[in-house]
Every structure is written in structure tokens, then in C-alpha cells.
């Protein structure tokens, strides 16, 4: 677990204060502790990993409280929730638009840097009956450790398209 700069944590606590005020919620020690723990990390921990860290600071905090706090932080826009193929949600204090890469071998989830995919959002907000508000992209692959491992998983087979082009008819 690498620590982010303290300035980021300070900024996130200010966001928490503002988000709670706008939503009529109190800034509780539990919300502060969970957000501080998340903001101090460069990885994308699960709720259980955050619980293990927060319980060292707040004796008596329950796993359920950490889960509820995380859902509240997501709802007020201070934290983002990232779904993974393992169906285990991961969390990120960085709510700016950025994308992720997920290792299919070990489950490592990292920020994807150096790739510009900003033009994915359609120009019109309505597409096929949906009103679009936001997007995120998650790539999957194998990290360097899994690639060099002796039992490196093979990429899944791509499904074969059964669509027939008009020219093929």
C-alpha cells in the first residue's frame, strides 16, 4: 500500500465536508477514518481491506459500518466504486475521470496511465433511448508478475460472432 501525498487526503476531507453539508449528513469520525484510509492508498482496496486498516484506528468499528460508509461516500460523489469480474467491488478516492486495468490472474487493479481515450463519450447525451451521464473504461490483461509465473492463465477465448453481414447473404 503506497501512500498518496497528504495534500490529496486534505482535499478529500474538504470534499467530504462539502458533500455531507450538501446532502444534510453529519461528518462522522467513521466517515473521516474510512476516507482517510482510502485517500492514503494508491491501490484500489476492497471494503474488507479498508475495514482491516480502519479498525486499527477506530476500535469497535464494524465491517457493516465500513460498508455503509463506503456506499454513502460513493452516493455523495467523494469516492468511486469500481466493479470487477470477480464481483468484488473495489474503491478509489480519485473521482476524476480515469480508467483502470485489471489483471485476470491475481486481480490487481491499477490506474491506466498514458492512454488517451477521452473521445469515447458521444456528442449527443441520448443514445439508443439512454440518457448518458458518464463513462468509465476498464481493460483486462495480465500483470508482469502473472505473465512471468509458471502457471500464467491463458486469455479467455473470444466468442465468435454469429452476425451475418448484408454482403455475405
What characteristics describe this protein?
7 strands, single chain, disordered C terminus, alpha+beta, globular, 5 helices
Q: Can I get a quick summary?
A:
This protein is an alpha+beta fold and 169 residues long. It has five helices and seven strands. It is 34% helix and 14% strand.
**Using only CA atoms, what is the Rg?**
19 Å
Query: Which segments are poorly predicted (pLDDT under 50) over 5 or more consecutive residues?
Result: 159-169
What share of the residues does DSSP label as strand, in percent? 5-15%
**Per the principal axes of the C-alpha atoms, what is the gross shape?**
globular
Overall pLDDT level: 81
Structural category is alpha+beta
Largest sheet report: 3 strands, mixed
Task: Determine the N-to-C terminus distance.
Answer: 56 Å
Number of helices: 5
Percent of residues in helical segments? 25-40%
Biggest sheet strand order reads 4-3-7
**Number of DSSP E strands:** 7
**SSE ordering:** HHHHEEEEEEEH
Describe it for me?
It is a single chain. Residues 159-169 have low confidence and may be disordered. The chain contains 5 helices and 7 strands, in the order ααααβββββββα. The strands form 3 sheets. The chain has a 3-stranded mixed sheet, with no helix packed on it. β5 and β6 (130-131) form a beta hairpin. By secondary structure, it is of the alpha+beta class.
Amino acid at each position: 500500500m503506497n501512500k498518496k501525498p497528504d495534500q490529496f487526503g486534505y482535499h478529500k476531507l474538504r470534499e467530504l465536508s462539502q458533500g455531507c453539508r450538501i446532502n444534510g449528513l453529519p461528518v462522522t469520525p467513521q466517515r473521516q477514518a474510512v476516507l482517510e484510509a482510502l485517500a492514503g492508498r494508491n491501490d484500489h482496496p476492497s471494503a474488507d481491506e479498508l475495514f482491516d486498516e480502519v479498525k486499527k484506528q477506530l476500535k469497535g468499528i464494524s465491517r457493516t459500518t465500513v460498508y455503509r460508509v463506503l456506499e454513502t461516500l460513493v452516493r455523495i460523489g467523494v469516492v468511486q466504486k469500481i466493479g470487477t469480474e470477480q464481483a468484488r467491488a473495489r474503491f478509489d478516492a480519485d473521482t476524476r475521470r480515469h480508467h483502470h486495468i485489471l489483471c485476470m490472474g491475481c486481480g490487481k487493479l491499477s490506474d491506466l496511465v498514458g492512454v488517451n481515450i477521452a473521445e469515447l463519450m458521444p456528442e449527443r447525451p441520448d443514445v439508443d433511448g439512454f440518457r448518458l451521464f458518464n463513462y468509465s473504461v476498464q481493460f483486462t490483461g495480465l500483470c508482469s508478475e502473472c505473465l512471468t509465473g509458471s502457471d500464467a492463465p491463458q486469455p479467455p477465448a473470444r466468442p465468435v460472432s454469429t452476425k451475418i453481414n448484408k454482403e455475405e447473404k
